[in-house]
C-alpha cells in the first residue's frame, strides 16, 4: 500500500477493516457513472475523518492520470516557482520535500509520484537509506544541481537543445548561479526567442525523466527528450499566437460593437473598459453569476440573473451550498450550478459574465490550470450542452445585481432557493438603472 491521501504529508488512509485488500486501487473507490467517489465503498473501508479528507479531492474520470506542479496555485510549472523551490531545497533545514502529484485516479500513479522531487541527497538528509549515487551516471552525491545541470544526460539535453551555457559551463554545485544564468538571459535579445525562452521546458523534461527513471525504471535518451522539449516549446508559442489572434479579433469586434463583448462559441477574458453592465448580442442571453462565501459557517451563496439583449431581466435565481471550505470551490459550484440551471430552462445561447478571473482562466486555457482539471472538465462538459456560449469577465460594479442577490442569502440567512421571473422588487432601482444605461 502506498500513501495517496494528502493530509499535510502523503499518507495511507486509516483502514478500518482488519483484513486489508492489497489489490484495492483508488479507481475501485470511484463511481465512474456519477463521476464522484463511491460513498458506500469509502465508508466500507475508511474512518469518517479520512473520508472527509478523501472527498475534498475531486478526480477527473474522463482523462488519464496527469502531473501537477504543486508549487503554483494553477498546478502548472513556472520558473519562478522552480527557483523558489531550489532555494527551499538548499536550505539546511528542509521543512518538506517537494513533490509532484498526479490525479488520484489510480494508486499506481501515486506510488510513482508521492515523493517525486526527492533526489537521493535530500532523501538521505531525511534519514532514508538509499544509494547516494546518481541513478543515471553513477556519480556519488545526487543533488538538485547534479540532476538539472551536471549529470551526463542533463548536459547532453542542454547541448542538443542549443541552449547557450555560461562561459565556463554550468556551475558544478551552485544551483543558484545556474538559475541566475537562465533568468538573466530570459530577455537577452541577442539570443533567438525560441532558445532563450525554452529553458523551463528543458528543466521540466530533465526533472521528469529523472523521476520516471527513479520511480518507474523508464529511461529516455537525450534525443527523444530534446524532440519532446521542442514540441512543447512550439506548442506554447503557437498557443501564444492563437491568444493574440483572439485578442485582436475580440478587440476589433469590441470596437465595432461599441464596447460589446460577444465572442460566439468561444471563450475569452477581456475586462470591460467601463464598469457598467452591457447587454448581449441580439438573439443571445446574458447570465451574470454572483457569489458570496462566508468563512464563518462555510456557506456559499450563489445567484444568477438572466437578461436579454434589451437588458430586461427574464429570470433570476439563488441558492446556497453548505460545507464549502474555500472560495475557489464556492466559485466553481456557483458557476456550474448557473450553467446547469440555464440548460434546464432550455436557454442554449448564453453569454456568461463572471467576476472570477481564475475561473475564466481555467475555462480559457485548461492546460495552464492542471490543478483544476476536475473543475475545467466539469464546466466544459456542461458548456458542451449549449448551442452557443461564451464567457466574459465582469467587473464588480457591473455584476452588482447578481452579487447583491447572492449576498442577501448569507447576510440575511435566506437559505431557501428559488427561481423567479424578472428581478426581486428590492432590486428594482438597480436593474432598471442598468437596463436604461445599457440602452443608451
Ligand atoms: Zn548523474
TrEMBL record:
Q: Which domain of life does the protein's organism represent? A: Eukaryota
Which residue intervals define the domain Reverse transcriptase zinc-binding in the entry? 77-158
Q: Which Pfam families match?
A: RVT_3, zf-RVT
What stretch or stretches form a coiled coil here? none
UniProt GO MF annotations: nucleic acid binding; RNA-DNA hybrid ribonuclease activity
| Protein's name in the database | Predicted protein
Q: Which residue ranges does the record assign to the RNase H type-1 domain? A: 292-408
Amino acid at each position: 500500500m502506498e500513501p495517496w491521501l494528502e493530509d499535510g504529508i502523503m499518507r495511507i488512509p486509516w483502514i478500518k477493516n482488519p483484513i486489508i485488500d492489497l489489490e484495492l486501487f483508488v479507481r475501485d473507490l470511484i463511481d465512474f457513472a456519477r463521476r464522484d467517489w463511491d460513498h458506500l465503498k469509502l465508508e466500507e473501508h475508511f474512518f469518517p475523518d479520512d473520508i472527509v479528507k478523501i472527498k475534498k479531492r475531486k478526480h477527473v474520470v474522463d482523462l488519464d492520470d496527469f502531473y501537477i506542479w504543486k508549487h503554483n496555485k494553477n498546478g502548472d510549472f513556472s520558473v519562478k516557482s522552480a527557483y523558489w523551490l531550489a532555494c527551499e531545497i538548499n536550505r539546511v533545514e528542509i521543512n518538506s520535500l517537494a513533490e509532484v502529484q498526479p490525479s488520484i485516479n489510480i494508486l499506481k500513479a501515486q506510488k510513482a509520484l508521492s515523493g517525486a522531487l526527492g533526489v537521493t541527497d535530500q532523501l538521505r538528509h531525511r534519514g532514508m537509506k538509499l544509494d547516494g549515487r546518481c541513478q543515471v551516471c553513477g556519480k556519488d552525491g545526487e543533488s538538485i544541481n547534479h540532476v538539472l545541470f551536471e549529470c551526463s544526460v542533463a548536459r547532453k539535453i542542454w547541448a542538443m537543445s542549443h541552449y547557450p551555457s555560461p562561459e565556463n559551463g554550468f556551475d558544478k554545485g551552485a544551483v543558484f548561479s545556474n538559475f541566475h544564468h537562465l533568468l538573466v538571459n530570459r530577455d537577452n535579445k541577442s539570443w533567438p526567442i525560441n532558445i532563450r525562452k525554452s529553458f523551463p521546458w528543458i528543466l521540466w523534461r530533465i526533472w521528469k525523466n529523472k523521476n520516471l527513471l527513479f520511480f518507474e525504471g523508464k529511461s529516455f535518451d537525450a534525443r527523444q527528450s530534446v524532440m519532446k522539449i521542442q514540441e512543447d516549446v512550439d506548442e506554447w508559442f503557437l498557443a501564444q499566437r492563437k491568444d493574440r489572434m483572439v485578442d485582436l479579433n475580440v478587440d476589433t469586434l469590441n470596437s465595432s460593437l461599441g464596447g460589446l463583448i460577444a465572442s460566439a462559441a468561444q471563450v475569452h477574458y477581456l475586462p470591460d473598459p467601463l464598469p457598467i453592465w452591457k447587454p448581449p448580442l441580439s438573439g443571445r442571453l446574458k447570465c451574470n453569476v454572483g457569489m458570496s462565501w462566508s468563512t464563518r459557517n462555510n456557506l456559499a451563496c450563489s445567484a444568477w440573473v438572466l437578461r436579454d439583449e434589451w437588458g430586461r431581466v427574464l429570470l433570476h435565481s439563488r441558492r446556497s451550498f453548505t460545507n464549502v471550505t474555500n472560495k475557489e470551490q464556492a466559485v466553481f459550484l456557483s458557476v456550474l450550478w448557473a450553467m446547469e440551471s440555464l440548460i434546464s430552462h432550455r436557454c442554449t445561447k448564453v453569454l456568461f459574465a463572471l467576476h472570477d478571473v481564475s475561473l475564466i482562466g481555467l475555462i480559457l486555457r485548461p492546460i495552464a490550470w492542471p490543478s483544476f482539471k476536475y473543475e475545467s472538465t466539469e464546466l466544459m462538459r456542461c458548456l458542451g450542452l449549449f448551442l452557443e456560449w461564451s464567457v466574459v469577465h465582469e467587473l464588480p460594479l457591473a455584476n452588482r445585481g447578481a452579487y447583491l442577490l447572492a449576498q442577501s442569502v448569507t447576510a440575511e440567512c435566506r437559505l431557501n432557493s428559488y427561481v423567479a421571473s424578472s428581478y426581486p422588487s428590492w432590486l428594482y432601482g438597480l436593474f432598471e438603472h442598468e437596463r436604461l444605461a445599457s440602452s443608451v
